[in-house]
Amino acid sequence: MQIKDKIFLVTGGGSGLGRETATFLFQQGAKVAMADVNPPSPLSEGHNYASNQLSITMDVREEKSVEAALEQIWTKWGHLHGVVNCAGVATPGKLIDKDGKAISLDIFKKVIDINLTGTINVIRLYVQKLLQSKPDLKCDPNVDNGIIINTASVAAFEGQIGQIAYASSKGAVAALTLPLARELSRYGIRVMTIAPGIFSTPMLKGLPEKAQASLAEQVPYPARLGRPEEYAALVGHIVQNSYLNGEIIRLDGAIRMGAR
């Protein structure tokens, strides 16, 4: 699938990986809808600035919120070609804290609700809307009818102490990649997942500089934090390489996370 003139929805488009992905797709000539719980600010001005981007307030956990966002996109542009799911949280928490108290189920459920349930909620409603608008959609080996790119994490494979909720949610996102790709192949829709390592995002920048430097040193090569534009570039490659389907790609500088 070529990026130019295609229509994409990026969740978590207000900051971090989502923001950089939206910017990249927009700069490549796509029409981009950025969705977040708070309305994302406009991207920098460019060709057809106003007509090629859309800022949407959306909660990935809420059915009506996602349905309204999809309707807004369809009304403005029509067929939505791709969804990039970047919305997520990384609330830490051990099973048992230092005072012997068990993790709050409310904290655990919130992480699962946003990272996992929110991801599948967007996917299911996108595919439903797509099939409603094109009920005769069929697989053509030479045409991508849709592309779904999800965001997992290296924590899906090497979750650290204090990441039980986050690792659980991202492990599930990784696990649903293949069954979704198999199911949606009949419609010519691809499903891929990126598992980023340690990236320089607002979430990570909240840590002290010393902690950030320590994390960067754990990366074999290049020994630095990942850059959001590198994630966005991989999204671009996945979109354009139609033989990528049903796979999880680690983007992590060869890091393998330790227990802490």
For the terminal residues, how far apart are their CA atoms? Answer: 40 Å
Radius of gyration: 18 Å
The spatial strand order of the largest sheet comes to 3-2-1-4-5-6-7
CATH homology-level superfamily: NAD(P)-binding Rossmann-like Domain
| Total of helices | 8
State the order of secondary-structure elements, H for helix, E for strand.
EHEEHEHEHHEHHHE
Poorly predicted tracts of residues = none
Any idea of the CATH topology?
Rossmann fold
| Strands, count | 7
Number of structural units classed as domains: 1
CATH architecture: 3-Layer(aba) Sandwich
Shape: globular
Verbal overview:
It is a single chain. The protein is an alpha/beta fold. The chain has a single domain (7-251), classed as 3-Layer(aba) Sandwich (Rossmann fold), CATH 3.40.50. The chain is 39% helix and 15% strand. Helix 1 (16-27) packs across helix 8 and helix 2 packs parallel to helix 3 (105-133). The longest helix has 29 residues, at 105-133. The N and C termini lie far apart (40 Å). The model has no long low-confidence stretch (mean pLDDT 93).
Task: Offer a few descriptive terms.
260 residues, alpha/beta, Rossmann fold, 7-stranded parallel beta sheet, 8 helices
Topology:
Layout: E1 7-11, H1 16-27, E2 31-36, E3 53-57, H2 63-76, E4 82-85, H3 105-133, E5 146-151, H4 164-175, H5 177-184, E6 189-196, H6 202-205, H7 209-217, H8 228-240, E7 248-251
Parallel strand pairs: 1-2, 1-4, 2-3, 4-5, 5-6, 6-7
Helix pairs in contact: 1-8, 2-3, 3-4
